[in-house]
Amino acid sequence: xxxxxxxxxxxxxxxxxxxxxxxxxxxxxxxxxxxxxxxxxxxxxxxxxxxxxxxxxxxxxx
Length: 62
Fold this sequence. Notes:
By secondary structure, this protein is mainly alpha-helical.
């Protein structure tokens, strides 16, 4: 995970993050597969602000 963040911050990660540096990890959950992880990511993005704050995702929302 740290290697991915470093790659994004060096501008070698996803094109989306190149113009939005520095990136930081604000929440981590372990999932059994990438499909489940992407589904959870989409679910978190769809949560209302209060629910995200309950997860401890304050840094992004501030």
